[in-house]
Design a protein that fits this description.
Elements lengths: L3 H14 L4 H7 L24 H11 L3 H8 L4 H4 E8 L21 E6 L7 E4 L14 E5 L9 E6 L4 E9 L3 E6 L6 E5 L3 E11 L1
Parallel strand pairs: 1-3
Antiparallel strand pairs: 1-2, 3-4, 4-9, 5-6, 5-9, 6-7, 7-8
Helix pairs in contact: 1-4
Protein name: Helix-turn-helix transcriptional regulator
Pfam families: Peptidase_S24 (PF00717)
């Protein structure tokens, strides 16, 4: 069973590995410097407070540590409580037939697996970015985790598959009963105004290892 102290201990160890204090690690990750203070680990009511997945993602991005490294620090016996293995695919393959069903969930036997944060969606999958098409938002080697069941709101980054088979990473601007307005992510960013009938499926990107 995952223990509250094990996760906080892992954050402290990660900070030391990069010659930082917990507050220095928070600051480097763009968080409030007090985010990881010992006083913040317990609520005023005396209940245990857990670090958010977002804050963990930010400290990994700031240090360059991988999620697998963080899981290893937490301890293998606790790994299943914060991590899971999900299907993984190179994004360059994602537009090919046979990898997704009509609802945008993984299908077929040609997927690899990767360690990712534990999430509720059993159909979640990961795509590995290759090349510089999506810079500066996503770079070569980054991993994005996509949840077909996650609700989507304006401003969310999404993975969109069109009826012609092409795949896009975009930010949702607005969606109506007939049209979807998107801003493509990357160094060739452009706006896309699509008819709903032209979109096979659209799923939210819920995490990125950068």
């Amino acid at each position: 069973m995952l223990k509250h102290d094990d996760v906080w201990r892992a954050i402290d160890i990660l900070a030391r590995q990069y010659n930082l204090s917990p507050s220095g690690l928070a600051r480097q990750a763009g968080l409030d410097p007090t985010t990881f203070n010992k006083s913040k680990r317990i609520t005023p009511q005396g209940k245990m407070r857990w670090p958010s997945t977002e804050s963990i993602a930010k400290i990994l991005a700031a240090t360059g540590a991988s999620f697998a490294e963080f899981v290893n620090i937490v301890g293998e016996e606790n790994a299943s409580a914060i991590a899971q293995r999900i299907p993984s695919l190179d994004i360059s393959q994602s537009a090919k037939d046979g990898f997704f069903d009509a609802h945008g969930t993984p299908s077929g036997d040609d997927w690899d697996e990767v360690l990712a944060p534990h999430i509720e969606d059993r159909n979640a999958f990961a795509l590995e970015i290759n090349g510089n098409r999506y810079e500066p938002v996503y770079r070569d080697g980054d991993l994005i985790v996509v949840s077909p069941s996650a609700s989507i709101r304006r401003g969310d980054r999404v993975l969109v598959k069109q009826q012609d088979g092409s795949i896009m990473i975009c930010q949702l601007i607005r969606e109506s009963a007939r049209r979807i307005e998107l801003a493509q992510v990357g160094n060739a960013a452009a706006s896309s105004d699509l008819q709903n009938r032209d979109v096979a499926w659209m799923s939210r990107i819920i995490w990125a290892s950068q």
